[in-house]
Amino acid sequence: MTRAAGDVRLIVNADDFGLSEAVNRAVIEAHENGIVTSTSIMAGGAAFEHAAELAAACPTLDVGVHLTLTELRPVADSVPSIVGADGKFAPHATELAKRCFRGAIALGDVRKELDAQIRRVLARGLRPSHLDGHQHVHVLPGIARVVAELARVNGIRAVRVPTERMRGYMLKDLGGLKRLAEQIALGLFGTLSPLEHLRRTDRFAGFYFGGRLNEQNLRTVLERLPVGKTVELMCHPGADDPQSRYGHWNYAWAAETAALTSPRIRELIAAHGVQLIGYRDL
After folding, report:
1. What angle (nearest 5°) sits at the alpha carbon of residue 84, between those of residues 82 and 88?
2. CA–CA separation, 180 vs 182, rounded Å?
3. C-alpha dist (Å) from residue 137 to 49, 162, 248
4. CATH value at residue 68
5. Distance (Å, rounded) from C-alpha 252 to C-alpha 208?
6. pLDDT class for 97, splitting at 50, 70, 90?
């Protein structure tokens, strides 16, 4: 990679802040001792209050809202079309998408819930710089329009559009074809959504290696950053926990934390003149 110094501006955003205290601590570590510049907080996460306290004590960390309509429980009362009999959201974005396409989701419920999530973050004294979504539900048709409206109403200038471009390394692993197909579909949703009209980065990366951004994979992404662009790199720092209720994600949390705080990665970024920024700098 040969570049003039400073010709790439990079946001390194840690998702799932508020999911657990282990994730929260790792996000702060990856910011204070690594390359993470930004995070997005889950208002309905089990460790939301812990995350909010950490964020308030760390003003250099850029904070957005990780809008959530899957896996967790709602923040708002009475949103029947987006929860099951157990009172929880759909277990995965694919199921939510199917319900959206069948017309089984009331957008009024979506707006009520996402508004409640943003208001909960604001009530803790945090001023979100951007919005994104858990499992990228914020780009689904209909839901994206609600997100764009809530961004405008709440004075939130930027929104993630998770359109990751295909790279040659993505074609080398046949086991990654399913992930690549999901990436293409997600890109189409993002490109066609009303979110395109809000402030965003020029490029997005991190979906293909989502949950497995170890040092080798992180280096692969960083060495291929597009010249002269502003890029968001999504990541998921944390700590390995056999007792976690989210073990089925198969995330390499500890490996991501290690990669994001690696001196070798910091040296790579410095050597190629990559400027680390937050969403607040867009």
Report:
1. 80
2. 5
3. 23, 10, 19
4. 3.20.20.370
5. 14
6. confident
Tell me the torsion sign for CA atoms 142, 44, 11, 169: negative
* Residue 266: count of CB within 10 angstroms of its CB: 15
DSSP 50-102: HHHHHHHT-TTSEEEEEE--BSS--SSS--GGGS-TTS--BSSHHHHHHHHHT
Domain span including residue 110 = 8-281
Closest alpha carbon to 132 in 18, 13, 29: 13
The residue with tokens 């707006």 is 111
For residue 191, which of 165, 154, 152, 225 has the smallest C-alpha distance? Answer: 165
Please give the residue that has the higher pLDDT: either 132 or 187: 132
Mean pLDDT, the chain, rounded, equals: 91
Residues 6+ apart with CB under 8 A from 179: 207, 208, 210
What is the tens place of the pLDDT at every residue in 25-75? 999 999 999 999 999 999 999 999 999 999 999 999 999 999 999 999 999
**Considering the domain boundaries, does residue 277 fall inside one?**
yes
